[in-house]
Amino acid sequence: MTIYQNQEAEQVILGTAIMNNSLLLNVADILESKHFSYIEHQEIWKEFIRIGREGVTADPVTLKNFMQNNAIFKDLGGSKYLITLMQLANGVADLRSYAKTLIELWQKREFYELIENCKNELQEKSFNYLSSDFQNKIAGLEFQEPKKQTQCTSDILDDLDKEDAEGLSDKFVETGFSKLDNFMNGGLYAKQLYIIGARPSVGKTTIGQNIILNASRSGKRCLFISLEVDKRNVMYKFLSNMKSIDSWKIQKKCLNQSEVVGLQEAKEELRNMKIYVNDSSGLNITQIKQIIKNQIDKQPVDLVVVDYIQIMKGEDTRNKNESLIIKENTTALKSIAKQFDIPILALAQINRKAVEGSNQEPTINDFKSSGGIEEDADVAMILHRDRSEDKEGGYFSDAGKIIIAKNRHGRTGVSNVMIQGNFGRFLEIN
User: Fold this and answer.
1) Which whole number is the average pLDDT over 79-88?
2) Which sequence spans correspond to the domains of the chain?
3) Quick one: 167-428 is in which CATH superfamily?
4) pLDDT of residue 51
5) Can you tell me the mean pLDDT for 127-151?
6) Considering all CA atoms of the chain, what is the largest pairwise distance in Å, rounded to the nearest integer?
7) What is residue 102's predicted lDDT score, i.e. its pLDDT?
8) pTM for the predicted model, two decimal places
9) Residues near 34 by Cβ (< 8 Å), separated by ≥ 6?
10) Is the pLDDT assigned to residue 392 strictly greater than 70?
11) pLDDT of res. 381
12) Are 386 and 359 spatial neighbours (Cβ–Cβ below 8 Å)?
């Protein structure tokens, strides 16, 4: 494709970087090899990055062997091409504008290819599939310039003082479980990834919904991305929790008069809460990010809850096992929390086999295909209830605990809880 290219801009960037490696820092945070349209320029940029990681200066001497031994540069004259690049640099110091030009041209090339592919698939695939796939890929082409990362301590302290004066430093979302909040210095903070894991049927979805309700009652706006439970059943659980009415009675509409009145009161209260629910299934991380972005553009939220990590789809699953896919997804969730300045609470599943046949408490290593859960989570919690095979009507004891197994910014410990399963409710106990 000869359109949407700028050979000179690519050459200027490379030539300037060869002459002054320090200028690489001006664009290294935004510019990737894929943004270059010419294969030879992609290869040079990759080599820049590779040897830079090794602490080696990229100049005609260090690049000579690479240029001479790479067949791509044979017709360009091998290492002599470096001289050409340097001559085109012309002392340009502001590489960032050139880099942004390349990024925009890359976006246009990708967009053009996307349109052509859609044309080819019109006969084979449904409109809904094409539309959804198109939107997701468009979202992947968005470019947001990274925020300034490096600051002097005096500037950082000035920012902190400003936050204190504006009350921003105290901005967090309380879970409604006081002991749990104390361990986390008040609650769930923006830019942080929180994870609660549990074995199947222990109550991870219930605890997540409890936190949403508790936060909403205090005026917070919450987005619940429910990959497993449909929105109707989410509502049943909320209403059951709020008025202590069995959810099955709400679903079956077999309520006595007092319960009918209570249900109407709960509905009115719930209508006034800012809880947003998306119950789409089979989502990948790009789609989840787009859902969050769309919601924030429409109405900002204070907390996002994702239920649950292990059923999130991978974007590109070729040659990837489940653990690697989960790692990529948890890393992305952490990045999304930082980008949109919100806390994200992700629910996760504990490996059933890890504690099969015993009341052994799970550990952070027992997360199913744990991948990067331990590494990426700022706070990793485990909801545990002992097995109680003799318990009437259930397999697990009503008594349980939330184990704070990892806390990057606070203490670890245990918050004891009691489940009221028929009302979809957890209560904190001493």
Assistant:
1) 86
2) 7-140, 167-428
3) P-loop containing nucleotide triphosphate hydrolases (3.40.50.300)
4) 81
5) 70
6) 89
7) 94
8) 0.67
9) 42, 106
10) no
11) 93
12) yes
What is the reported pLDDT for 207? 93
Q: Classify strands 425-428 and 413-420 as parallel, antiparallel or unpaired.
A: antiparallel
The predicted pLDDT at position 125 comes to 78
What would be the CATH architecture of the domain defined by 7-140?
Answer: Orthogonal Bundle (1.10)
Residue-level length of the chain = 430
Distance CA 58, CA 72 (A): 19
CA distance 5 to 105: 6
Residue whose pair of structure tokens reads 């976006």 in the numeric block: 107
Going by the DSSP 8-state scheme, the letter that residue 335 receives in this structure is H
Name the DSSP letter for residue 280. -
Instruction: Please tell me the distance from the alpha carbon of residue 159 to that of residue 338, in angstroms, as a whole number.
Output: 17
- Tens of pLDDT, residues 274-307: 999 998 888 888 888 888 988 998 889 999 999 8
Closest CA to 374 of 382, 384, 386, 364: 364
- List the Cα angle 88/90/96 in 5-degree steps: 90
HSE-up (13 A, CA, CB side) for residue 273 = 25
Q: Could you tell me the two tokens for 255? A: 């309520």
Question: For the chain, percent helix, then strand, then coil, each to nearest 5?
Answer: 50, 15, 35
Question: Which region among 79-83, 95-99, 130-134 has the lowest average model confidence (pLDDT)?
Answer: 130-134
Q: Which two tokens stand for residue 369?
A: 């295909």
Helix (H, G, I), strand (E, B) or coil at 191: coil
- Under 8 Å CB-to-CB from 383, ≥6 apart: which residues? 196, 197, 198, 202, 203, 204, 207, 400, 401, 402, 403, 417
Tokens 């994702």 — which residue? 306
The CA distance from 286 to 307, in Å, is 16
- For 350, phi and psi rounded to 5 degrees? -85, 140
Q: How far apart are CA 401 and CA 418, in angstroms?
A: 8
The enclosing H or E element of 160 equals helix 153-166
Q: How confident is the model at residue 319 (pLDDT cuts 50, 70, 90)?
A: low
Task: Determine the Cα–Cα distance for residues 369 and 350; give it in Å rounded to an integer.
Answer: 9
Q: Please list the alpha-helical segments (H only) found in 247-380.
A: 247-252, 257-271, 285-298, 322-339, 373-376
Token readout for 152 is 């002097």
Q: pLDDT by residue (tens digit) across 200-233? A: 888 899 999 999 999 999 999 999 999 988 888 8
> Which run of H or of E encompasses 382?
strand 379-387
Q: Can you tell me the distance from the alpha carbon of 290 to that of 370, in angstroms, rounded to the nearest whole number?
A: 25
Peptide bond into 81 cis (omega under 30): no
Cα separation, 187 vs 407, in Å, equals 12
